[in-house]
């Protein structure tokens, strides 16, 4: 195994979307919405607004607070807009890949923001390139722009719906023209997208925590296969792809790890689901111990659930440094390995002489978990029992979550006993797949492919996140980060 790659024990997240129609100015709301979706991506952020005549955009690399630190709301005026926070699941970390993408077609301007991963992007991209099209990013999302510009779709009714119908894989899109904001989810419903109302304005967000942040009332989720259009005449819904019976594949990892605990995702509160995971873990893998300790923040809810069900008290054995960012979001491995050492500190007095149960959400490569076990022992823990609120992550994700390849996943190559030995723990217990699905009344509606290897949509040619990368420099004509169009 490549040692350099074995540095993070969390998958990195995908992207976050936030859009508004009918609030003037829209920009401050989008900023707040993106700010509360920051946990979904920290590589870059962008906002595009429209005043009905002109689109204005600003985007850059880094955190929302950094990207928009010197951007005045006066520069981004309009009553509608869409925003995006990015972690690259395809394409490298460079400004061209930061979304929303803005393009000018023969019939007007379009802005597009995407969460997910298109499994037929390579095929579509090749098709358009062979026909002479020029791509300016290495993201899968750009193929939608070409579909929208294609005369085959452009000149026909229901153009957007037809273009979306060509896509395969996981996608939630926000699309904006000068006149309207559109929101859609793929027919499998992999990625979440909610609709809210703020006075007369319509709001769209990847998670409901962002709706709450701006004071919007949650109305409902965008349905899988649905295209929703917000314009001057109200909110309109249509179906661009029929959902095949039993074809719903909502990403269960949103519940395990990605989403914020105060969000409602796929109709359930994330904190409560994680609490249920912890309780189930206590039933499936009980052990005599003195304290339960969470790996903050992702293990907090499950640790509480474990503690309550087992009767073993919860204590704060790890303190997280909140001022260095979330290390597993840093896309470069060397950044990750440096950051991990800074991220968590053990409270020696809490664990000294104790039998400690450590609860975390997942183990990806195993090296971070191993380091934490070592630290607990160095701090004087008598026993260390690791409990994981997801099953062994043994398969890569092709739908927008940046897991490593199977070779790099520790559970892709080793059984639980070997992983336990690698971690140096006294015991290791993962929740079962049954347990993972137990909180949901509609268990069949979830994707669990990274645990089971059963992929609901054929991965096709989907490769690594840089599969569409053919150029490593900056494109000179794409360097500007602020534009009035
Ligand atoms: S493979 Fe795993 S991470 Fe990817 S969509 Fe399915 S459940 Fe989510």
Topology:
Elements: E1 15-21, H1 27-36, E2 44-50, E3 55-61, H2 64-67, E4 80-86, E5 101-105, E6 108-118, H3 121-130, H4 142-149, H5 151-154, H6 159-165, E7 169-176, E8 181-185, E9 194-198, E10 201-205, H7 208-213, E11 217-221, E12 226-231, E13 234-239, E14 250-251, H8 253-258, E15 264-265, E16 268-269, H9 270-284, E17 291-294, H10 300-310, E18 314-315, E19 318-320, H11 333-343, E20 344-346, H12 348-351, E21 355-360, H13 367-378, E22 383-388, H14 410-413, H15 416-423, E23 427-430, H16 433-437, E24 446-447, H17 449-452, E25 482-484
Parallel strand pairs: 14-24, 17-18, 17-21, 21-22, 22-23
Antiparallel strand pairs: 1-4, 1-10, 2-3, 2-4, 3-25, 5-6, 6-7, 7-8, 8-12, 9-10, 9-11, 12-13, 15-16, 19-20
Helix pairs in contact: 9-10
The structure holds iron/sulfur cluster.
Q: Features of this protein?
A:
485 residues, 25 strands, Glutamine Phosphoribosylpyrophosphate, subunit 1, domain 1, binds iron/sulfur cluster, disordered N terminus, 17 helices, six-stranded antiparallel sheet
């Amino acid at each position: 195994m490549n040692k350099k790659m074995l540095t993070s024990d969390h998958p990195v997240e995908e992207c976050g979307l936030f859009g508004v129609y009918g609030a003037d100015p829209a920009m401050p709301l989008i900023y707040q919405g993106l700010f509360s979706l920051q946990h979904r991506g920290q590589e870059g952020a962008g906002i595009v607004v429209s005043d009905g005549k002109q689109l204005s955009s600003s985007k850059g690399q880094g955190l929302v607070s950094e990207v928009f630190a010197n951007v005045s709301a006066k520069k981004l005026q309009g009553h509608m807009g869409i925003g995006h926070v990015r972690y690259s699941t395809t394409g490298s970390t460079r400004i061209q890949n930061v979304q929303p993408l803005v393009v000018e077609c023969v019939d007007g301007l379009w802005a597009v923001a995407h969460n997910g991963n298109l499994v037929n992007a390579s095929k579509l991209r090749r098709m358009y390139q062979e026909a002479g099209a020029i791509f300016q990013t290495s993201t899968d999302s750009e193929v939608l722009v070409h579909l929208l510009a294609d005369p085959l779709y452009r000149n026909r009714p229901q153009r957007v719906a037809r273009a979306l119908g060509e896509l395969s894989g996981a996608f939630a899109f926000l699309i904006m023209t000068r006149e309207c904001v559109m929101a859609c989810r793929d027919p499998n419903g992999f990625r979440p997208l909610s609709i809210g109302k703020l006075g007369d304005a319509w709001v769209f967000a990847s998670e409901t925590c962002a709706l709450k942040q701006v004071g919007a009332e949650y109305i409902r989720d965008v349905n899988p296969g649905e295209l929703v259009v917000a314009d001057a005449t109200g909110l309109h819904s249509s179906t661009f792809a029929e959902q095949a019976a039993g074809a719903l594949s909502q990403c269960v990892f949103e519940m395990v790890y990605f989403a914020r605990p105060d969000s409602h995702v796929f109709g359930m509160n994330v904190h409560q689901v994680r609490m249920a995971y912890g309780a189930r873990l206590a039933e499936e893998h009980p052990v005599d111990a003195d304290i339960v300790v969470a790996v903050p923040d992702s293990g907090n809810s499950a640790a509480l659930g474990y503690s309550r069900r087992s009767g073993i008290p919860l204590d704060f054995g790890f303190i997280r440094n909140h001022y260095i960012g979330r290390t597993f979001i840093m896309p470069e491995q060397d950044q990750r390995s440096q950051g991990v050492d800074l991220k968590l500190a053990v409270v020696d007095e809490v664990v000294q002489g104790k039998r400690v149960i450590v609860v975390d959400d997942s183990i990806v490569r195993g090296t971070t978990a191993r380091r934490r076990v070592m630290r607990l022992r160095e701090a004087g823990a008598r026993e260390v029992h690791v409990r994981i609120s997801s099953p062994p992550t043994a398969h890569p994700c092709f739908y927008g979550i940046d897991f490593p390849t199977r070779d790099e996943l520790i559970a892709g190559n080793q059984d639980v006993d070997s992983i336990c030995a690698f971690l140096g723990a006294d015991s290791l217990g993962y929740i079962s797949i049954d347990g993972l699905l137990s909180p949901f009344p509609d268990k069949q509606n979830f994707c669990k492919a990274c645990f089971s290897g059963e992929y609901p949509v054929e991965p096709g040619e989907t490769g690594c996140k840089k599969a569409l990368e053919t150029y490593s420099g900056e494109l000179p004509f794409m360097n500007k980060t602020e534009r009035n169009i």
